[in-house]
Amino acid sequence: MAEVLCTLPLPAPFEEMVRPRASLSVLGRIAPSAELAERLRAHPVDVLCPQLRDPITADLLDAGLPTLRCVSLYAVGYNNVDVDAATQRHIAVSNTPGVLTDATADCTLALLLAAARRICEGDAAARAGAFQGWEPDYMLGMELTGALLGVVGFGRIGQAVARRALGFGLRIAYSTDVEVSIDADIQGRVTELPIAELLSTADVISLHVPLTDATHHLIDERALRSMRSSSVLVNTSRGPVVDETALVRALREGWIAAAGLDVYENEPQLAPGLVECRNAVLSPHLGSATVATRAAMARLTAQNSLDAIDGRVPTNCVNPSAWEGGAPPAVS
Fold it and tell me: Where in this chain does the record put each D-isomer specific 2-hydroxyacid dehydrogenase catalytic domain (predicted)?
């Protein structure tokens, strides 16, 4: 029987789908890489289902050989996996795209609204007894109607954010380094701009790019200084897209007005000083955290795993060339 290992337990219907076809083990925690490698050597598996916090390096993949045939991620991003090394070792890597688009877009709008209207700052003041009654100039925020939202990265999630923002009366501009197909319902309602112009003119910047060498610290000190002092930065993509140390300075010194963050550069640690920034709305990586979305992710993770076990290229394989020489036979 096939062997599947999860580093953390996954929600239903993962277990119900996998157990009829494989023996399922759960480590129950994010272990150091050396410990996980030793586990793979001692108890070989056909499919490893890691989390974003599990670094899947060439050495770890070697520890899984010769049985390991698939790394089935419970995530859409796969920057924690050495995909080239996996391909060289004929190990498929799969993810869970599409199903978390709406949940992440909702989270983005929540952060945008909270940061622009200073909701969390006001909540803290009210709880601390600092609210002394309505005043004409108390805790003024950004008027969203007519403001310009700049979306950096305009794939599924970026367009879902734009669609929601249009309902709040924002104007939409976007920047992208890849060719994208604009959904019919927002065609003619969005404008493409070079990223430098986007950063310098938008009232709100929302990040929706994958983490690559090119996007690491895409928003650095130079980018932050180019933004308007009244602008808001929102990041629900990947933490290292933003230079978090520079962002703390930007928030403290007023280069920008506020930020809404769901991801962090050295997650779960935050950059020194970020917690003290009252103009930062901090969410603990809740982008996909709805019951329906996490279940849908579990279903895709299970299906990708079963595909690999049955000798099929996983439904959502990011490196199909890993099996170009022929898929391994099904595990009996």
Answer: 33-319
Q: Which residues are catalytic?
A: 238, 267, 285
User: Where in the chain are the domains?
Assistant: 2-98+291-323, 101-282
Q: Structure tokens of 119?
A: 């909701």
Q: Which fold has domain 101-282?
A: Rossmann fold (3.40.50)
Confidence (pTM): 0.94
pLDDT string in tens for the chain (332-residue length)? 999 999 999 999 999 999 999 999 999 999 999 999 999 999 999 999 999 999 999 999 999 999 999 999 999 999 999 999 999 999 999 999 999 999 999 999 999 999 999 999 999 999 999 999 999 999 999 999 999 999 999 999 999 999 999 999 999 999 999 999 999 999 999 999 999 999 999 999 999 999 999 999 999 999 999 999 999 999 999 999 999 999 999 999 999 999 999 999 999 999 999 999 999 999 999 999 999 999 999 999 999 999 999 999 999 999 999 998 888 999 97
Which residue carries 């997650």 as its tokens?
267
